[in-house]
Specification:
Length: 94
């Protein structure tokens, strides 16, 4: 019997952030963490080509530095991974 897996991302709107701000993501599973600007969040949601900062998070805490001033989002998902349920906490720390 096959198991259907739904790809359900969690997308957090961080609002406008300055270059070099740090976004802290705390996790309880191995998941994909992607920092996306406003231009790329739509293509990400549509599963088309987009640019991002991040990748597979294998540690419980991940700090990501914002590369430029702008409106930013954090997307967390399990696409291509074995994790099912996960918890995530996102904080801008600087």
């Amino acid at each position: 019997m096959g198991i259907m897996v739904r790809w359900e991302p969690v997308v957090v709107d961080l609002g406008w952030l300055p270059r070099a701000a740090t976004v802290r993501v705390r996790l309880d599973a191995v998941v994909n963490v992607r920092l996306l600007n406003a231009e790329n969040v739509g293509p990400y949601r549509r599963r088309s080509a987009y640019r991002m900062v991040g990748g597979v998070a294998t540690q419980r805490q991940l700090d990501i530095r914002v590369p430029s001033d702008g409106h930013w989002y954090i997307a967390v998902d399990t696409e291509g991974l074995t994790a099912g349920n996960f918890r995530v906490d996102v904080t801008v720390v600087s």
